[in-house]
């Protein structure tokens, strides 16, 4: 369940989270855990006897290879290997009995390690006799396990010797001989701990655990202390780390919760309250799982992301904390008994519309995998939730998916008069031919309208309002169409030459291969085009965090505004909202910057207003809601930083600091100020012509002249005598023109 007061990652106790609770429930319910612990301890006891100090002089290579160096194995009385499934089927008590009676034997270290070859066969010992190899081994074991001084200093010393052991096996030997004092530190255990830190949002807090063996050992003992009710010792804790190591990358799913069923509302409530997603128990074996939902459900693993699909929309998004499990149907009521198949989920709850993001086929199936972009576009609807970061721990670049559904639609001026169409009052409805990407174009996508010819470029903007359909009476442009809503004319147009001159748009598919009607625009290209759009007016829209006692409607409006979906305002808002209303009513193009007040004090992104709707609001005057085409900055552009002070001083509205935001909710700014903030927000750094000119001991006009020549010609040669700064100037210009990206 969501908590009222979110904590930052540095404040939050990672062991007091739904994820940690789910992991412990997963392990406690895992039949293999106790069997792995039992067989591991038995194998370690056998190895410990061989590694005893008074036995080292008698230790043979065969004993060492079979019982210490080799991968663990459990065999029956006939020497046949027993799989983990076979052992689980027998159960802990029966396995323990058979081992005690000699009907089962354990060998090896019971831990999966990187090296599996026999010790003496390593390349290190090539050309040496078995006696020489054994002497090296005994000397290393004696120093590591029974030498004088600090244990960890001996570990660092011995692991550096040319003895064939290495860091993983040195930690294994200490782990076996001194149970309870040392842990195993090999590739899987390190990767498992890294995965655990990521799941718990503790990457920064636990970073020091990977510095050396002593730190890693301390971290694992902390884990053991926090999980003492689940894990008996370090051998059992290894099962968790190895299970996490095997998880792989996160996947994305949609799970429908009792769609169309009488107990849907009650089940949805229980899923939210109990932190789970549930699907039903088949009525009988004949109807076991005709659509494969149960098998799909079992594929969902810890760390995956899930969308809860409810009737007419989505009820939440979350991250999986526990993989597939089943309730005991005899111990629960009828509803839980029927919907007893579960996975644990840490939900962000609240009903939202899914729009075009879950088309019909994906709505009909109970469990289905979805792509990463679709999930984060749905998750963005919850970005205002105070637990968004805590529950989802999103990757730093998750916002890249929010503007990826962008297209260029091209027309031939000899066959269609686009300019005449763009003179009509906006918005208005029309349709367009679809000759490419029919399965990828969906309702709600953004479209730039391209006019071919001598002055080719972007002349208008529209959005799709339908799925691709087949026209009953095909015309000369083809049978497939998609409905469009024209939003605005781009004046002056963004010409092909301008796009070719910009590094982000020079490789647009319509430029590289202009034959066709429909062209995909990727995320970076879409942001670059949006940044080029001319406008008649430029505004700052301010978003303020609601009070603690705010209504649900106020919180929802705040969430919508933070995610850049819709902006709500009234004519009584501080600033000049009436100027914004006038611009909308007169059909002028309006671009905006979205600003968030404390505690961030940062610009969140930019964009342009697609549609503005005004309505009478009684004594408060007109109220408005703006449908935005929003492009988030990769990172919020914080204003309370030393780096921000210099460029803020070059703007009129920020020259006096943040005072403007305390007295205004909506206000207009100049095109120059808009461009200054945009340039810094997109690049993440303050790269200006003046700064480059100063660095090159030149002036602004000369730098602009060089930039224009490069954009026109594509190359330039500096010549002159040695030592005059040619290379220095070229490098400074390169950093400026590539916006500091050393990969370009």
What is shown here, in short?
The protein is built from 29 helices and 21 strands. By secondary structure, the chain is of the alpha+beta class.
Please, what is the oligomeric state? single chain
How many structural domains? 5
**Can you summarize the main beta sheet?**
7 strands, mixed
The amount of helix comes to 25-40%
Q: Return the structural class.
A: alpha+beta
Q: List the total number of helices.
A: 29
Extract low-pLDDT stretches: 1-6, 112-116, 616-620
State the end-to-end distance: 45 Å
Percent of residues in beta strands: 15-25%
Descriptive account of the structure:
There is one protein chain. The protein has 744 residues and is an alpha+beta fold. It has five domains: 24-72 and 108-244, no CATH class; 252-395, ph1033 like fold; 402-523, ph1033 like domains (ph1033 like fold, Roll), CATH 3.10.590.10; 537-683, ph1033 like fold (Roll); 689-737, no CATH class. 37% of the residues lie in helices and 22% in strands. It has 29 helices and 21 strands. Residues 1-6, 112-116 and 616-620 have low confidence and may be disordered.
Layout of strands and helices, then pairs:
Layout: H1 18-28, H2 31-50, H3 61-69, E1 73-76, H4 84-90, H5 92-100, E2 104-107, H6 130-146, H7 151-159, H8 166-177, H9 187-199, H10 213-226, H11 234-245, E3 252-256, H12 264-274, E4 276-279, H13 293-299, E5 305-310, E6 313-326, H14 334-338, E7 341-352, H15 360-364, E8 367-369, H16 372-379, H17 388-392, E9 406-411, H18 418-422, E10 428-433, E11 446-451, E12 457-464, E13 469-475, E14 478-495, H19 496-501, H20 509-512, E15 518-521, H21 523-532, E16 537-543, H22 552-562, E17 566-570, H23 577-585, E18 590-596, E19 602-616, E20 622-638, H24 642-648, H25 659-663, E21 666-669, H26 671-683, H27 689-695, H28 700-713, H29 726-737
Parallel strand pairs: 3-5, 9-11, 16-18
Antiparallel strand pairs: 1-2, 3-8, 4-7, 5-6, 6-7, 9-15, 10-14, 11-12, 12-14, 13-14, 16-21, 17-20, 18-19, 19-20
Helix pairs in contact: 2-3, 6-7, 7-8, 9-11, 27-28
């Amino acid at each position: 369940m969501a908590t009222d007061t979110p904590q930052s990652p540095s404040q939050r106790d990672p062991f007091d989270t739904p994820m940690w609770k789910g992991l412990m429930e997963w392990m406690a319910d895992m039949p293999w855990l106790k069997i792995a612990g039992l067989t591991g301890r038995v194998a370690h006891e056998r190895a410990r006897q061989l590694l005893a100090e008074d036995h080292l002089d008698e230790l043979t290579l065969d004993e060492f290879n079979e019982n210490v160096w080799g991968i663990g194995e459990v065999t029956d009385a006939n020497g046949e290997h027993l799989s983990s499934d076979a052992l689980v089927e027998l159960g802990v008590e029966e396995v323990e009995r058979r081992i005690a009676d000699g009907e089962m034997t354990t060998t090896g270290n019971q831990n999966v390690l990187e090296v599996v070859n026999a010790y003496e066969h390593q390349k290190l010992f090539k050309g040496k006799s078995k006696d020489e190899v054994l002497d090296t081994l005994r000397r290393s074991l004696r120093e590591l396990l029974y030498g004088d001084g600090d244990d960890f200093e001996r570990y660092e010393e011995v692991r550096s010797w040319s003895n064939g052991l290495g860091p993983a096996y040195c930690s294994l030997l200490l782990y076996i001989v001194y149970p309870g004092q040392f842990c195993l530190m090999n590739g899987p255990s390190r990767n498992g701990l890294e995965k655990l830190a990521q799941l718990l949002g503790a990457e920064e807090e636990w970073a020091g655990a990977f510095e050396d063996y002593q730190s890693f050992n301390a971290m694992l003992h902390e884990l053991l202390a926090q999980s003492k009710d689940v894990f008996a010792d370090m051998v059992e804790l290894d099962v968790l780390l190895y299970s996490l190591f095997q998880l792989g990358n996160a996947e994305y799913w949609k799970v429908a919760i009792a769609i169309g069923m009488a107990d849907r509302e009650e089940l949805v409530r229980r899923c939210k309250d109990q932190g789970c997603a549930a699907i039903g128990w088949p009525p009988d074996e004949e109807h076991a799982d005709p659509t494969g939902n149960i098998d799909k459900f079992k594929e969902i693993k810890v760390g995956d992301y899930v969308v809860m699909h409810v009737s007419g929309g989505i009820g939440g998004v979350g991250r999986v904390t526990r993989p597939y499990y089943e309730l005991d149907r005899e111990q629960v009521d009828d509803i839980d008994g029927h919907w007893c198949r579960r996975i644990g989920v840490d939900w962000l709850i609240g009903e939202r519309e899914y729009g075009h993001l879950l088309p019909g086929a994906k709505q009909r199936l109970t469990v289905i995998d979805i792509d990463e972009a679709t999930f984060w576009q749905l998750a963005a609807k919850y970005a205002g939730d105070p637990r968004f970061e805590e529950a989802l721990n999103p990757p730093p670049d998750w916002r890249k998916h929010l503007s990826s559904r962008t297209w260029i639609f091209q027309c031939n001026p000899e066959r269609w008069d686009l300019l005449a169409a763009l003179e009509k009052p906006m918005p208005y409805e029309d349709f367009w031919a679809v000759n490419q990407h029919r399965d990828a174009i969906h309702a709600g996508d953004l479209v730039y309208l391209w006019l071919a010819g001598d002055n080719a470029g972007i002349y208008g903007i529209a959005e799709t309002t339908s799925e691709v359909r087949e026209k009953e009476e095909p015309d000369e442009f083809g049978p497939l169409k998609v409905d469009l809503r024209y939003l605005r004319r781009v004046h002056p147009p963004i010409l092909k030459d301008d796009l070719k001159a910009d590094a982000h748009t020079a490789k647009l598919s319509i430029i590289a291969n202009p034959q066709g009607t429909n062209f995909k625009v990727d995320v970076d290209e879409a942001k670059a085009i949006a940044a080029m759009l001319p406008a008649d007016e430029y505004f700052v829209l301010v978003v303020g965090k609601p009070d603690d006692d705010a209504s649900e409607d106020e919180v929802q409006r705040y969430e919508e505004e933070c995610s850049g979906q819709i902006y709500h305002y009234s004519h009584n808002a501080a600033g000049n909202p009436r100027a914004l209303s006038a611009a909308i009513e007169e059909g002028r193009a309006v671009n905006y910057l979205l600003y968030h007040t404390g505690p961030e004090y940062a610009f969140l992104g930019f964009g342009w207003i697609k549609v503005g709707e005004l309505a009478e609001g009684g004594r408060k005057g007109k109220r408005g809601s703006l449908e935005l085409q929003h492009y988030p900055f990769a990172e919020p552009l914080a204003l309370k930083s030393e780096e921000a002070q210099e460029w803020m001083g070059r703007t009129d509205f920020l020259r006096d600091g943040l005072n403007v935001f305390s007295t205004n909710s909506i206000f207009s700014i100049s095109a120059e100020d808009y461009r200054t903030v945009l340039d810094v927000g997109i690049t993440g750094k303050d790269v200006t012509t003046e700064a480059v000119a100063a660095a090159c001991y030149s002036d602004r006009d000369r730098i602009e002249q060089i930039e224009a020549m490069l954009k026109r010609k594509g190359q330039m040669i500096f010549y002159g005598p040695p030592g005059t700064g040619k290379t220095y100037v070229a490098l400074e210009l390169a950093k400026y023109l590539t916006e500091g990206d050393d990969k370009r």
